[in-house]
Design goal:
2 helices, globular, 2 domains, 227 residues, Immunoglobulin-like
Length: 227
C-alpha cells in the first residue's frame, strides 16, 4: 500500500452505439441497443451517473453502463420513434443531477451521437441546450432545499450563449438570463407544480431549432418524506 495525491481529472466517456450517422430501420428503432463506455468511472465513483437525453426531451439516468438498454427504454410510453434525424446525448452528472465539471475551465464530460431512423434527413446543427435537472417530484423539505437548476450547452463557442429562464410556480413567475454554465440553487420552493421554460440565445438574437429550447414541469411536495 502507498498514499499518493488524488487528482480529479476529466474521464473519457463515449456513446459506442448507435453509430454516428447510422440508419436504423423504423420497425426496429425502439429495440436498437445503446452501448456506453465510461472507462470504469461510474464504478470507481459511487453516486455519479450518466444522464441520457434523447431528442432534447426523454431523460434517463444510467448507473451501470453494462446493463442492457435500448432506445425505447428512454421513452415514457411505448410510442414509436419517428422517421428522420435523431440525437442522443450522454452527460456525466453527480448525485444531485448536475453536470460534473472538471479543472479550472469547468469542463463538462459529454458525448453526442446523431443517427437516422428510416430515411436520412438533415441533422440539426449545434448548439444544443441539454436540460439536466430538476425533474420529477421533489419530496420533503430536504429534497426541495437541495434542488438545483442545471443545463449544459454543447457545440463550438458554447460560452457565447445565454439561457433565458422562465419559472412559473404557485406564487408567481420568475425570469432570469443565465450564463451557459450552472448549476444554480433553487431557493424558496413551496408545495405545487413549477414549469421551467429555457430558451437559448445570445446577447443579440434568439437561437432557433429543436435543441434551442426545453420545457419541463416538476412537482414539489414538502409533506411527503423522500423515498
Amino acid at each position: 500500500m502507498r498514499l499518493e495525491p488524488y487528482v480529479s481529472s476529466a474521464p473519457v466517456m463515449s456513446i459506442v452505439e448507435p453509430r454516428e450517422d447510422e440508419t436504423v430501420p423504423i420497425e426496429g428503432a425502439i429495440a436498437r441497443r445503446i452501448v456506453l463506455d465510461d472507462a470504469g468511472y461510474l464504478e470507481e465513483n459511487p453516486g455519479s451517473r450518466l444522464t441520457l437525453v434523447f431528442d432534447g426531451d426523454a431523460v434517463r439516468d444510467v448507473t451501470d453502463v453494462r446493463a442492457p438498454l435500448a432506445l425505447g427504454g428512454l421513452l415514457a410510453d411505448a410510442r414509436e420513434i419517428s422517421s428522420g434525424s435523431h440525437a442522443l446525448v450522454a452527460v456525466l452528472v453527480g448525485p444531485r443531477g448536475d453536470a460534473l465539471r472538471f479543472g479550472p475551465n469547468r469542463r463538462v464530460v459529454a458525448s453526442v451521437r446523431r443517427f437516422f431512423v428510416g430515411s436520412p434527413s438533415p441533422h440539426t446543427p449545434p448548439p444544443m441546450l441539454v436540460f439536466l435537472t430538476p425533474r420529477g417530484t421533489l419530496n420533503g423539505p430536504a429534497g426541495a432545499k437541495s434542488a438545483l437548476l442545471d443545463f449544459v450547452v454543447l457545440g463550438e463557442s458554447a460560452g457565447v450563449f445565454r439561457v433565458n429562464a422562465r419559472i412559473a410556480g404557485p406564487s408567481g413567475t420568475s425570469t432570469a438570463v443565465l450564463p451557459a454554465s450552472g448549476p444554480y440553487a433553487l431557493r424558496g420552493l413551496g408545495n405545487g407544480d413549477y414549469r421551467f421554460d429555457l430558451e437559448l440565445g445570445t446577447d443579440r438574437r434568439r437561437i432557433e431549432g429543436p435543441w434551442a429550447h426545453a420545457t419541463r414541469t416538476i412537482t414539489v411536495n414538502l409533506d411527503v418524506a423522500p423515498r
